[in-house]
Structure formats: structure tokens, C-alpha cells
Specification:
There is one protein chain. The protein is of the alpha+beta class and 129 residues long. The protein has a single domain, classed as Winged helix-like DNA-binding domain superfamily/Winged helix DNA-binding domain (Arc Repressor Mutant, subunit A), CATH 1.10.10.10. It has four helices and six strands, in the order H-E-E-E-H-E-H-H-E-E. The strands form two sheets. A three-stranded antiparallel β-sheet has the order 1-2-3, with no helix packed on it. A three-stranded antiparallel β-sheet has the order 4-6-5. Helix 2 crosses helix 3.
């Protein structure tokens, strides 16, 4: 046996005596709100994938990236749909209602996308990263 092999063998014998071999149980943390910008998928509090339309995802992701910040309907239209679209407040309200039905545990009592009466909408600032 050459010197390198002998050193390797000694190391292999020495390691188990220095390392803990007690199994450790690691629980995977599952956040109740998961959004993946690369796959464009939202995962709900039950761990189910929720597939969103392009604009639903864009709106959710925009609000998620600016948690706690209040946006007017006009600002949301500009930021998510672009400047070319005509602003129609009832369309955005309907759009948010449909999005809430898909992502909120209780759409009638939303906790992710919040209405700021008389101003617009915001994403809950307490949503985990």
C-alpha cells in the first residue's frame, strides 16, 4: 500500500469517531405563500400549485415585490398592463376578485391582496419571502 492510500485509509477510519452519526430529523418549512417568478407558479397554503394567467401572475408578483406599498388603480394599470391600456376601475376590481378566488384561503376576507378604500390596493406586508 502506498503512502497516499494509507493516509486515505487512516482518514476513513478516523472520521466516524469524530463525526456525529446520530440521525437528525429535519422538517421542511412550508410557507403559506410561495410564488416562483421563474416558473410563474403560485403555491397555496395546502402546497397545491395554482396556475395563473399571465396578467394575474404579473399583478400578484408586482404587489408581492412591493409588499405594504399602496397603489392606485391607475398605477397598477401602468405598472402591470403598460401605458397603452385604457384605465377602467371596474375591470381591475373584477380582475382582483378573480385573482383572490384563486389564491386567497378565504376570498371574502382576503389576507394577501388588501383593498385600501378610496385609494387602491396593496399586498400584505406580513407575507413571508
Amino acid at each position: 500500500m502506498d503512502e497516499e492510500e494509507q493516509l486515505f485509509q487512516q482518514t476513513v477510519e478516523w472520521l466516524p469517531s469524530k463525526l456525529s452519526t446520530t440521525p437528525v430529523f429535519m422538517k421542511q418549512q412550508v410557507a403559506e405563500f410561495q410564488i416562483d417568478p421563474f416558473t410563474r407558479i403560485f403555491i397555496n397554503d395546502k402546497g397545491e400549485k395554482v396556475y395563473l394567467t399571465t396578467k394575474e401572475f404579473d399583478l400578484l408578483y408586482f404587489l408581492f415585490c412591493h409588499r405594504g406599498q399602496i397603489f392606485t388603480k391607475e398605477h397598477l394599470y401602468e405598472s402591470v398592463w403598460g401605458y397603452d391600456n385604457e384605465i377602467d376601475g371596474s375591470n381591475l376590481t373584477s380582475f382582483i376578485r378573480k385573482l383572490r378566488k384563486k389564491i386567497e384561503p378565504f376570498p371574502a376576507n382576503p389576507k394577501y391582496i388588501l383593498t385600501v378604500w378610496g385609494v387602491g390596493y396593496k399586498s400584505n406586508e406580513n407575507i413571508p419571502n
